[in-house]
Specification:
The complex is a heterotetramer of chains A (222), B (309), C (369) and D (143).
Chain A: H1 7-18, H2 23-38, E1 44-45, H3 48-51, H4 58-64, E2 70-73, H5 81-89, E3 92-93, E4 101-104, H6 112-118, E5 132-136, E6 139-141, E7 150-156, E8 164-169, H7 173-182, E9 191-195, E10 200-204, E11 209-216
Parallel strand pairs in A: 2-3, 2-4, 4-5, 5-9
Antiparallel strand pairs in A: 1-10, 6-8, 7-8, 7-11, 9-10
Helix pairs in contact in A: 1-5, 2-4, 6-7
Chain B: H1 4-12, H2 33-48, E1 54-55, H3 69-78, E2 85-89, H4 96-109, E3 122-126, E4 139-143, H5 157-165, H6 170-183, E5 193-196, E6 200-203, E7 221-226, E8 231-235, E9 241-243, E10 271-274, E11 284-287, H7 290-301
Parallel strand pairs in B: 2-3, 3-4, 4-7
Antiparallel strand pairs in B: 1-8, 5-6, 5-9, 7-8, 10-11
Chain D: H1 3-12, H2 15-26, H3 29-32, E1 35-51, E2 58-73, E3 76-83, H4 87-102, H5 104-133, E4 136-137
Classes of the chains: A alpha/beta (222), B alpha/beta (309), C alpha+beta (369), D alpha+beta (143).
Chain lengths: 222, 309, 369, 143
């Protein structure tokens, strides 16, 4: 037993505590999630005090996770967040294709295409069993510029008046194609929140229609 | 039993809270966090799948089921310390049920209340949408007694689930057609069935047909809560809400030619009838939205004061 | 003006509340102690706990007092109280064989293994209204208490003469029938997770655990009515059920001790348990054997447990052919039914105005054609 | 008496006995200075799962109101869960549990309290049965 000297184990209690939100923190995060889901592509900010203490992609997951939910949290190279999240929330860890809630922190972002492919979309009889994905990306902007990276999307559908542009540094066209394939059997589908480490957040629920209008190479991870 | 030392330990464990809700004697928003999480998950699915009735583990509320327990659960799951709440029943802020629900929300959150949509962020309602145009700031929470629009054409819940899953609304159309043929008009009154986002048929609670067009491509989010039936559904902003009707049968809202509000003279609001006390007295009409009516009257009396009161 | 109705529902509501509060708390009589209700209105308190789905005698008694004796209203108070509480744990699965009987009758046999124990019951007492005053009722009750004292001899020794557990925890009749190979064996080994009706709405087709949980907190009268309708109503048929057992007793509440990891029993609840033996006579059924339905609910409430056991097996045999399951899941909850019924008292003038408008439109069409 | 049994008896002990003993323990400096409340007494529910006999299936019977607390004395943890809503008594029970683990002398006092509780429960059950057994219907069967 070398747990006592494992530096990660020592950090665990503080990280578990960081994953516990009080009633007002939970409400504030949920409200941002509700507002972004109601207006796909609209960029809002997560509460500062939350993104200061945990990877921003975990915040929307922790708010919804409890003993009733199965979660799949990707660990980062520096910390086993999965354990911290399940200890704090009581949620059960699950395989990717069985999870209700999936979080991919920005610095744990690999194999994103397969995550979009294998996340569970539910069925027409129970759309509510479709997975929710929270993904950390490098940057989110409302439109592309000359120094952009990643993909530029156009979003149409409920919550969007006409169309809305969105530029995501951290997604590839292959990711978006996998995502669109998983969402091709609406009302089955997955709902996605993208976050940045600065705490910006945007939602793209399954009701949104996505088109890739430009692509750039994704920037190196910082 | 006199136990001062034990009491001391007990007092020490009462958390010191400096939040805006610290003076409350109940959980912020009454519900425990566990319940809120489940309701919140259902709300997010409802918004992501417009018009789909999301099942949820409806909690028993301090109001009877059928008295707005579904709407109340939504309101308490989304309300925050910076919201301002307006509650109406039949359009009236002073309706007995509206008063009761508003008291519960305010006393369990400490947030301010208002009767004016302009000043409100969270509007819970039974049977009406306020006359004032609502916008991005507003979330409209509607209380729903019977969420299933197909109940009149199918009684078996297993079959109802299939019809929604397959978007098989043929029998609904047949029933509307038969109605039209038999009665000359579509006789549906309130809660008129509408197709949301071209996919799901919903019951528009029992709001009058008058209010239905205001759900179509609205600027606000509308959340529908049916506590007894344990269902939540939603119409996000900028979403198509089309009343089911036929090409040659225009959708009709309630209009009574010649009627105007006795209080503010409006002919452009939803009016309700106040019957005469005696046989000879023909009665009169008043606005159902009492706060709008009050402001409309003041605007007419003091045009310089503008819209606010 | 004959009266001045203040504009403002709040004032009227507060005035109405004051009238209730004054009578309920003051009046001419004594304060109704919770303890008094737990002792003397025992069955009402038990019913409230069962229909409220929450075991706590003191809270249930408080609810009953606040509800002025209306059990459905009291169950509602209890249920909305539970909405504010966190769920701290699940008990370890309690085996109902651990029930310690306070009453146990076996209608199916004259002399079953274990006692025919009447316990505390008025089943065999004439339903004669006792109009005697308190003094005479007290005198009579004191005589009975004295009789009990004279006839009870409590053994002093702790070991040796304690009653064997097979008397307080008699073997169930179902096991006897199994020994005789007289009952269809439906025992499962896969141990499915029980359906949680407080977290998800139970809708047909549902699991058996969802039906049992729904019936366990159903309104007593509603459950009795669904049962009766299933027997004699337009959609039912008369069939013979024999009650295997009716028990009232205590079940342990056992949770995992977080520091030892072992189960510990922290308390007891009283429950009523029923086994209903069904004569299988369907063409696709095993005519050579019986099947058994099961009922269990909080407190002493035999009507409810019997209806539940009967409906359990009726639903099992129905296999979704009729609306029985939908009736059980959707119409037996006291709060749902009474809440919806009572909401009709709320203002409906907006919807009524809309209906009036359509009536006029239809009449106009009729006149024009 | 093992720790599990002690918790069972602390859960069923008289409220006044528990709080009086906790008060006495707290008056000792060694306890008062070392007590730490790990989880303050919290009123909540436990969902009662039962396994029925026909299909051996589990189902939810309903919830039971309980109060739970956890304290530590000099780092030694004590836990209690009691039915009902009495936070003070539950805190007292958790404190006695921790003290019994922490200190041999106090353990003896807690043990004595638990034994009194066990005796009372056994006596109540014997009396209950003596009263009930008179209601048993006996049929003489001919052999």
């Amino acid at each position: 037993m070398n747990l006592a000297i494992d530096p990660e184990a020592r950090r665990m209690p503080a990280k578990v505590a960081a994953c516990r939100f009080d009633a007002l923190e939970s409400q504030a995060i949920f409200k941002v999630m509700l507002d972004t889901t109601s207006r796909p592509g609209l960029i809002l900010d997560l509460p500062r005090r939350i993104v200061d203490r945990i990877p921003s992609a975990l915040a929307p997951l922790v708010v919804l996770a409890d003993v009733e939910t199965r979660v799949h949290v990707i660990d980062t190279p520096t910390f086993a967040w999965s354990e911290a999240v399940t200890s704090a929330t009581g949620a059960r860890p699950a395989q990717l294709n069985k999870a209700d809630l999936i979080a991919v922190p920005a610095d744990g972002r690999e194999h994103l295409t397969s995550i979009f492919t294998f996340a569970h979309p539910g069925s027409a009889f129970s759309p509510e069993s479709g997975a929710r994905l929270m993904i950390g990306v490098n940057d989110i902007r409302s439109h592309g510029t000359s120094d952009s990276a990643g993909v530029e999307l156009v979003i149409r559908g409920p919550g969007v008046e006409g169309e809305r542009g969105l530029c995501i540094d951290g997604l590839t066209e292959a990711d978006v194609n996998a995502w669109r394939t998983t969402n091709s059997r609406f009302p089955a589908g997955i709902d996605v929140w993208l976050t940045t480490e600065a705490g910006r957040i945007v939602a793209i629920p399954r009701s949104s229609r996505l088109d890739v209008v430009a692509t750039w190479p994704t920037q190196e991870r910082k | 039993m006199n136990t001062p030392l034990l009491q001391q330990v007990l007092d020490r464990t009462t958390p010191v809270d400096d939040s805006p809700a610290s003076h409350l004697e109940v959980n912020f928003g009454l519900l425990d966090e566990y319940s809120k999480r489940e309701i919140r998950r259902a709300i997010l699915t409802a918004v992501a799948v417009p018009g789909y009735q999301v099942p949820f583990g409806s909690r028993e509320m301090p109001v009877a089921r059928g008295w707005g327990s579904g709407g109340l659960q939504i309101s308490l799951a989304i309300v925050g310390p910076y919201d301002v709440v307006k509650v109406i029943d039949q359009g009236d802020d002073e309706g007995v049920n509206a008063v009761n629900l508003r008291r519960l929300i305010v006393s369990s959150t400490g947030i301010p209340e208002s009767t004016t949509p302009e000043d409100s962020t969270l509007i819970q309602t039974r049977h009406r949408i306020p006359e004032d145009p609502l916008d991005e700031r507003h979330t409209l929470v509607l209380q729903v007694p019977v969420p299933e629009p197909l109940r009149g054409v199918e009684r078996d819940m297993r079959e109802l689930a299939r019809m929604h899953a397959e978007a098989d609304y043929a029998r609904m159309w047949v029933s509307l057609y038969e109605d039209k043929v038999r009665n000359g008009v579509i006789t549906r009154t309130t809660g008129y069935p509408c197709l949301v986002n071209g996919r799901y048929v919903i019951a528009t609670t029992p709001i009058p047909r008058w209010d239905v067009p205001r759900l179509h491509r609205s600027r606000f989010l509308a959340l529908f809560g049916a506590g007894r039936e344990k269902r939540i559904y939603a119409v996000p902003p900028h979403t198509d809400v089309e009343p089911l009707t036929f090409e040659d049968v225009p959708f009709e809202v309630e209009v009574t030619p010649g009627a105007s509000c006795r209080t503010c003279s409006s002919t452009e609001s939803f009016l309700v009838e106040i019957p005469g006390a005696t046989a000879g007295d023909g009665g009169h009409w008043v606005c159902s939205d009492s706060d709008w009516c009050r402001r409309n009257r003041e605007r007419l009396q003091h045009p310089s004061r503008g819209d606010r009161s | 003006m004959g009266y001045a109705a203040a504009r403002g529902g709040l004032k009227a509501i507060e005035a109405a509340e004051r009238l209730v509060a004054r009578e309920r708390v003051l009046g001419e009589s004594q304060w109704l102690e919770s303890k008094q209700m737990i002792e003397k209105l025992r069955l009402a308190v038990d019913r409230v706990m069962g229909e409220g789905g929450l075991w706590d005698e003191h809270l249930a008694a408080s609810a009953l007092r606040q509800a002025e004796g209306d059990p459905i209203e009291a169950a509602h108070l209890l249920r909305s109280y539970r909405s504010t509480l966190p769920r701290l744990a699940y008990t370890t699965p309690v085996d109902v064989d651990d029930l310690t009987v306070l009453r146990r009758i076996v209608p199916a046999f004259r002399n079953p293994p274990g006692p025919q124990l009447l316990g505390r019951t008025t089943d065999y007492t004439g339903r004669l209204l006792d109009t005697d005053d308190e003094t005479s009722q007290r005198t009579a009750a004191e005589k009975m208490a004295a009789f009990i004292e004279e006839n009870v001899t409590i053994s002093k020794a702790i070991d040796g003469d304690a009653e064997p557990t097979d008397i307080r925890q008699p073997r169930r009749l179902l096991d006897l029938l199994r020994d005789l190979d007289a009952v269809v064996d439906r025992r499962r080994t896969d141990d499915p997770e029980p359906f949680d009706i407080t977290r998800h709405p139970a809708r047909p087709p549902a699991t058996r655990s969802a039906r049992l949980a729904t019936m366990a907190r159903a309104e007593t009268g509603a459950l009795v009515n669904v049962w009766y309708r299933n027997i004699l109503g337009p959609d039912g048929y008369l069939h013979e059920i024999t009650l295997g057992e009716v028990r009232h007793g205590r079940l342990p509440v056992t949770v995992i001790h977080p520091l030892t990891g072992d189960p510990v029993s922290i308390s007891d609840v009283r429950v009523t348990e029923v086994e209903a033996i069904e004569d299988l006579n369907g063409i696709d059924e095993d005519r050579g054997r019986f099947d058994v339905g099961y009922g269990l609910c909080f407190g002493h409430n035999e009507k409810k447990a019997i209806a539940m056991a009967n409906l359990d097996i009726a639903c099992e045999r129905d296999k979704g052919r009729s609306f029985l399951e939908q009736s059980i899941l959707l119409t037996t909850d006291g709060l749902d039914a009474s809440g919806f019924l009572e909401h009709l008292k709320l203002p409906h003038y907006v919807t009524f105005r809309s209906m009036m408008e359509r009536k006029a439109a239809i009449r106009q069409f009729q006149e024009n054609t | 008496m093992d720790r599990n049994r002690r918790s069972e008896l602390l859960a069923r002990a008289n409220s006044s006995e528990l709080t009086a003993m906790a008060e006495a323990f707290l008056s000792r400096r060694s306890i008062a200075e070392e007590i730490q409340v790990v989880n303050p007494p919290e009123v909540g529910m436990v969902m009662m799962q039962v396994r029925e006999p026909v299909c051996k299936e589990r189902f939810h019977l309903g919830e039971v109101v309980v109060t739970r607390a956890e304290v530590a004395v000099a780092g030694v943890r004590g836990w209690a869960m009691r039915s009902g809503t009495d936070r003070e008594t539950t805190l007292a029970a958790a404190l006695l549990d921790a003290c019994a683990e922490h200190d041999v002398e106090l353990a003896a006092e807690v043990q004595a309290l638990c034994e009194r509780t066990a005796d009372r429960i056994a006596a109540d059950e014997r009396r209950e049965w003596e009263e009930l057994r008179a209601t048993a219907v006996s049929f003489e069967e001919l052999d």
